[in-house]
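Researcher: Quick test of sequence recovery. Tokens follow.
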């Protein structure tokens, strides 16, 4: 993955997390300052929480 693709994916994930009102990782770091890997896991955890709360 080239640097431009990484930045695009990070921007996309940050936008989605902000839409879900998530601004920090589970360990308290600002999502604007973490690596792509951490953003991906934060997003997956957020989606899992949405599904759990919806009762699926």
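Model:
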């Amino acid at each position: 993955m080239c640097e431009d693709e990484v930045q695009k994916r990070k921007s996309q994930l940050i936008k989605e997390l902000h839409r879900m009102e998530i601004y920090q990782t589970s360990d308290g770091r600002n999502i604007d300052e973490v690596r792509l890997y951490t953003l991906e896991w934060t997003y997956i955890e957020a989606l899992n929480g949405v599904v759990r709360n919806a009762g699926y």
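The chain has a mean pLDDT of 93.
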